[in-house]
Amino acid sequence: MPPTTDELLELTVGPVAHGGHCVARTDGRVVFVRHTLPGEKVLARLTDTGDDPATARFWRADAVQVLQPSPDRVPDAWPAAGPGGVGGGELAHVSLDGQHRWKAAVLAEQLQRLAHLEPADLPGGGVHVEAAPGDDARGGLHWRTRIELVAGPDGRAGMHRYRTHDVLALDPAAPGGPMPLATEAVLALADAEGVFTRRWEPGTRLELVAPAARHDTDAGAAAPSPLLLADGRTWQGGRADLRPNARRTVTETVTTHGTTWTHRVAADGFWQVHREAPALLVGAVLDALAPAGSLDGATVLDLYAGAGLFTLPLSDATGPTGRVVSVEGSPRAVKDARRSLHDRPHVELHAGPVDHVLAALRAAAGASGGLTHADAVVLDPPRVGAGRVVVEQVAHLAPQTVVYVACDPAALARDVALFAGHGYDLTALRALDLFPMTHHLEAVATLTRRP
After folding, report:
1. Which of the listed residues 249, 367, 412, 425 has the most CB atoms within 10 Å of its CB?
2. 374 vs 358: CA distance, rounded Å
3. Is 68 within any annotated ligand binding site?
4. Which CA distances in Å does 147 have to 124, 139, 157, 292, 366?
5. Could you list the pLDDT tens digit for every one of the 451 residues in the chain?
6. Distance (Å, whole) CA 435 – CA 426
7. Do the Cβ atoms of 404 and 415 come closer than 8 Å?
8. In contact, 445 and 115? CB cutoff 8 Å
């Protein structure tokens, strides 16, 4: 008889796979196992065997006992995210060096399998994952400036159990605290507002936001003000602020390459969550564009532009004689970007699906506001990637350089293969660990048009 959910299996664990798990096999069946490491021998509890275990292509399991540990195994930094726990800390049992090797292996494997690029043929001779500044000193903890919680049936704030809608309450007295990935400022906000001691209306969605402080401020400069939203309402001093003009935005600053840019964005909108990510990514994008020469007077596209993280620095790089075309699907994010860019007439903000907006701009070629060519393109698509239509539209504009910011290795590899078909080679690649203790990573890929 095939096993059932909750049954224990003894498994010898194989290589890592995209998604935060490793691959094991039992009687020829693939089992994706979380909370383990390659080479380990574990007892694993089956968590998903499909509708019919006998015919399912694969099963899922959690390692609940380690019989032979890997040298990369360390004490779990977030037990609440362990087997049967909340999502979001699936690599908390792995050393930081081990996490970097894990993520490098996944990115290299996806580029090999989907983009047909052998590891030795990659820029730099392979994938090398970089830690964000300060993460090694903090042990990979306290980096998230934004945390989302939900109140369970008992009103206690918590997070969803992995791959379920069940809410598990977070214990403020737990070793390491209830949210060890949150910055100290987020934890202080939670404590000040009684997030974990108060009983909320079941189902209440809580968003805790504490923008990272600038590194170049004077000692007496005020830190950015944190904000708690409960179902979209500002919560301050232990009560909801019901005023129509209650603050729902935060100020984010990005300092790199000797310049500071300031953004005012919706607290519950999209913004990079790692305290160092905005500056690190802006610096990486500007560095990737530098080999193409000065951007002064250039036409640059910023696709999937969000609240303008890259648009604002690009507007400085092109200067008033250049043209920056920003495209973003979220009207609220475009509204946020307009706050920062309203005084820059050489910047155009377009709200709408990227493929639709590009099609309209290209159709208007020759007319005012039309688009026939771009000198450079920056794109930061969602986890599904840009896709065939957008890649084709970008290639038709014939930019010399495309800088692709990716949050998913498989999507990046698929799109790199599509760009290769249009005459673009992967000439530089940076892999950045902006999500310690999780399987996620960010990559900045530079694609250069062949002569």
Report:
1. 412
2. 12
3. no
4. 35, 19, 12, 38, 47
5. 778 889 999 999 999 999 999 999 998 899 999 999 999 999 999 999 999 999 999 999 999 999 999 999 999 999 999 999 999 999 999 999 999 999 999 999 999 999 999 999 999 999 999 999 999 999 999 999 999 999 999 999 999 999 999 999 999 999 888 999 999 999 999 999 999 999 999 999 999 999 997 655 444 556 678 999 999 999 999 999 999 999 999 999 999 999 999 999 999 999 999 999 999 999 999 999 987 678 999 999 999 999 999 999 999 999 999 999 999 999 999 999 999 999 999 999 999 999 999 999 999 988 888 999 999 999 999 999 999 999 999 999 999 999 999 999 999 999 999 999 999 999 999 999 999 999 999 999 999 999 9
6. 24
7. yes
8. no
User: Of residues 115, 147, 407, 431, which has the active-site annotation?
Assistant: 407
The domain tally of the chain equals: 3
Return the ∠ at Cα 369 (arms to 341 and 349), rounded to 5°: 25
Calpha distance 270→230 (Å, rounded): 17
Identify whether residues 195 and 182 lie together within a single domain. Answer: yes
Q: Is 421 helix (H, G, I), strand (E, B) or coil?
A: helix
Q: Is 328 annotated as a binding residue?
A: yes
Helix (H) or strand (E) segment spanning residue 104: helix 96-114
Residue 271 tokens, joined: 């913004």
Return the beta strands (E) in 357-433 as ranges: 376-379, 401-406, 424-433
Residue 203's domain comprises: 146-250
407 is catalytic: yes
Q: Kindly report the pTM of this predicted structure.
A: 0.96
The residue whose two tokens read 């099609």 is 359
Of 28, 55, 73, the domain-final residue: 73
Q: H-helix or E-strand containing 249?
A: strand 249-256
272 marked as part of a ligand binding site: yes
Do 392 and 278 fall within a single domain? Answer: yes
Residues 6 or more apart whose Cβ sits within 8 Å of residue 341: 308, 311, 312, 315, 326, 347, 349
- Looking at the fold, whether 233 and 261 belong to one and the same domain comes out as no
Cα 437 from Cα 265, distance rounded (Å): 27
Report the SS3 class of residue 273: coil
